[in-house]
Amino acid sequence: MKLPADLPAGAASRADRGLAIRLRRRAAEVVALSEFFAVYGSLINFAGLNALLALSLYVPLSAGQLSLGNAAFAGIGAYVSALLTMRLNVPFPMSVAAGGCLAAAVAMAIGAPVLRIKGIFLAMATLAFGEVVRICAVNLSITGGAEGLIGIPNKTTAVMIYGALAATAYFLTALRWSQTGWSFASIREDETAAMVMGINTTRYKNVAFILGAFIAGIAGGLYAHLNFIITPAEFGFSAEVQLLIYNIVGGTRSVFGPIVGALILTAIPEALRAAGVTAGPLRLGVNGLILLLVILYLPNGLSSLFAKKR
Amino acid sequence: MISGMLLEFEKISRSFGGVRALSGVSFGVQAATIHGLIGPNGSGKTTLMNVVSGLSGADAGRLLFDGRPIHRLRPHRIAALGVARTFQNIRLFSGMSCLENVIAGQHLMGARPLFQRLFRLRSANLAEMKSLADARACLSKAGIAGRESAPAGSLSYGERRRLEIARAMALKPRLLLLDEPIAGMRLREIEEMESLFRSLVASGVTILLIEHNMPFVMRLCHSITVLHFGETVMTGTPGEVAEHPEVIEAYLGGKGERNEG
Amino acid sequence: MSVFLQQLINGFFIGSVYGLFAIGYTLVFGVLDILNLAHAAIFTLGGLSALWLTTTAGLPGWIAFPLATLFSGVLGLLLYRVAFAPLRRRADSNLSGLISSIAMAIVFESCALGIFGARTVRFPEGMFQNRVYHFQSITITSLQLEIVAVALGLMIVLSALLKYSRTGKAIRAVAESENTARLLGINVEWIVSQTFFVSSALGGAAGILYGLYFDALAPDMGRSIELKGLAVIILGGMGSIPGAILGGIAFGLSEVLTVELTGMSNLRDAVAFTVLLLILILKPSGLLGRGRARQA
User: Fold this and answer.
1) Hey, which of A78, B7, C90, C220 has its CA 20 to 30 A from C186?
2) Is B87 domain-assigned?
3) Is pLDDT of A291 > 60?
4) What is the pLDDT of residues B222-253, one digit of tens each?
5) Do C234 and A66 touch (CB under 8 A)?
6) Residue B113's closest chain A neighbor by CA?
7) Residue where a domain stops, chosen among B127, B153, B170
């Protein structure tokens, strides 16, 4: 899922072509209404959603599981909630919750076989899962095929997005000091040592995977009701990678890392635009350079710059 | 069943792709004693320890803990019965501080409820205070109280071994498995560990340890099992082991001479 | 029946390009245990630089294409120096390497966008005498034959080099165990650099062939092949060269067969990715690979 502001990032890919159309449509509306606030209002909304999505990936990462299926879970949440509101007139909060629950249910089903795989192979298996979900969405008639779902009512507000973000961040901070949080951290550090100290690693890895999928599903539902359209391509490989980038740039040692990463990387293209950098490729390249510098010189992410040593 | 046995191996066998790491190992570990496990490299000591902690299954035989078969249980279930261990190649959580390592080790103490914490109830605070106090006590018993906020990755070799022991103690185990606990330690550290182990045993803990430092083993252990090519050569008191001709031949490497392999 | 046969042949042609792409992927994985996600970006730059050499520089294909292949190899060296070499000593080097390769992929892609724009471009018309052969109802073009010949030729050359040349043997030694290789007096750093050079040159060559086959080049063309390449090397077993070739052809065939049998072109990748997911779950070492996925 991408912020319209970094449109040139992939003016190339199909995902972004869909976005481009939407962006133009939105731009027209925006100009007709009130220019400035509306433009940045949408930036603020997308930044919040990206942060929420980044947190959804942070959960399995904090348990040492490199899952790249969270954009697909967001897609499941988006489609389910959009279909519920559009076809069955289910009230908006309920349809978003249902989207989150279904994403979690799918995670529960695939978690048992998939989480036996480790490291990079888990990343690939979850990527393959994401592709299967995307291909399903392209081929089912109920999801509207490659063109996606059009005409989703606009119900999501900035307050909801940031409310969900704050609630999630608070929950994850509290979780960190609980039995579950310590188990996640132990598994991430050394799975074997975690096992012999009594941690049911299989169970906690599943918990992390399912919780992440649930958050992604909720974020997907909010995203669907912020946009007029959703398409399968928006929840594909580039989106998965984008979520990973937010986490790496921000750092995964605390809940705030992914949020900082998502906010900064969502804002930078816009800031560059304001600073007069108009060339799209340059703005894209800056994101790549930031990621490169962070992985080379700040392995614990940007948030480690501000972290106080306990 | 011999009374007072906490751990009993009954004809435990285990092979890896055709190589027999353990064949028909049988012996018992008396409760509240220190039991040494010695033998040359590759004799199956660590494999045996992995079988006890559930990391490696046994192909045949039975393993009883407090009279209850545990050889089919998964590692976390075995830990829940009160079995803690350390590793030959030290497996610390190097991204955490010393104190955090020990707190992570308190998993089975179950004092960290999410919902109290979520709603900031007083009980959450109390539970946390208790867990902190317990963790500090473990660190100070292991003699590294001064390093509680140091990252585990920054410790010296001997300190790392001690931190791993502290983390294992956080589980309040009935049986403590120590894989070469004093390897790489200085003399003064070894003496401290010796008194730590003795005090643990005095409080009712049973220790099964693998160690190559023969004087240490002979001094400390109540009984010793000698493994050779995956088979039990003998089990006996340190005195008996030192007298056994086969042991002297195969392991101690010379008559009466206690070398420090 | 003949339509079916025609599809099989088409699948074989495109599958050989997938195989060539995947070989480079799998080579780096075999040697370094690193998933190089910038491989697709080099594939793109290989194709686009060949285009630049033939159009702007006006070189004939037989000079331009080898030059572009060399250029891709040099990009591979750059990639290694910048993104992988500094991380080699790190404990989580295969994970941080994955991420720095993503970063380099973004940088490469933005360069491609900046230089060539977002348009889809093609090689100049009339560059080749593209003859069309008919065998009963089956059609094969000379371009297709040339593509397959080059792809298979490069694969054979690479396999032979790995098997018989000094460097090839050293590469295999490093793949087996870096420390042992070092003890044997092999300059590991140099061998790894060479691996990247060869891998990226093959990736660039695949990009050129892909551009010729579909008669289209675009800065995002790497994205569609990136996941396919992953699927191919998992099907074939990570690190296995024959596996990558067979996996590539199998993937090409499965694409055309799925479309042929279901009549839905959108389902093209469905079978391949479902099979991929199942393989990872059931036999993570791949069909021809070594069994080490679970310990990764």
Assistant:
1) C90
2) no
3) yes
4) 999 998 888 888 899 988 888 887 777 766 55
5) no
6) A178
7) B170
Count of A–B CB contacts within 8 Å?
88
Are B166 and B196 found together in one domain?
no
Q: In chain B, helix, strand, coil percent, each to 5?
A: 40, 25, 35
Over residues B84-99, mean pLDDT: 91
Neighbours of chain B (3+ CB pairs under 8 A): A
Distance from CA of B115 to the nearest CA of A (A): 9
pLDDT at C290: 47
Chain C CB contacts of A299 below 8 Å: 90, 96
pTM assigned to the model: 0.86
Q: Are residues B177 and B261 in the same domain?
A: yes
Q: Which two tokens stand for residue B192?
A: 């401290």
* C137-142 long-range Cβ contacts below 8 angstroms, 24+ apart: C137/C2, C137/C3, C137/C6, C138/C2, C138/C5, C138/C6, C138/C9, C139/C6, C140/C9
* CATH of residue A163: 1.10.3470
Together in a domain, B65 and B177 = yes
Q: Tell me, what's the pLDDT at A309? A: 41
Nearest-Cα distance to chain A for C15, in Å, is 19
CA distance B124 to chain A (A): 10
Do the Cβ atoms of C44 and C121 come closer than 8 Å? no
For residue B18, give both structure tokens: 């055709």
- The CATH number linked to B211 is 3.40.50.300
Residue of B49, B94, B101, B114 for testing the chain A interface, max A β-carbons within 10 Å: B114
- Residue A79 confidence (pLDDT) above 70: yes
The answer to whether A128 contacts C276, with C-beta atoms less than 8 Å apart, is: yes
Residue type, B174: R
Burial class (CB in 10 A: 0-12, 13-18, 19+), C101: buried
Provide the β-strand partners of residue B208. B35, B177
Contact flag A291-C274 (C-beta cutoff 8 Å): no
Q: Parse chain C into domains and list their residue ranges.
A: 17-223
Inside any domain, residue A308: no
Q: How many domains does chain A have?
A: 1
**End residue of a domain, out of B145, B170, B195:** B170
Same domain membership, residue B4 and residue B66: yes
Q: Which of A184, A198, A185, A175 is closest to B100 using CA atoms?
A: A185
A180 interface with B at CB cutoff 8 Å: yes
Kindly state whether residue B88 falls inside one of the protein's structural domains: no
- B144 and B199 housed in the same domain: no
Residue of A59, A197, A203, A205 for testing the chain B interface, max B β-carbons within 10 Å: A197
C26-69 tens-digit pLDDT: 888 888 788 888 999 999 999 999 988 888 877 787 888 899 99
C137 within 8 A of C220, measured Cβ to Cβ? no
Task: Say yes or no for a CB contact (<8 Å) between A199 and B110.
Answer: no
- The 10 Å CB-count burial string (b at 16+, else e) for B186-197 is eeebbebbeebb
Instruction: Tell me the residue range of the domain where B179 lies.
Output: 1-82+173-261
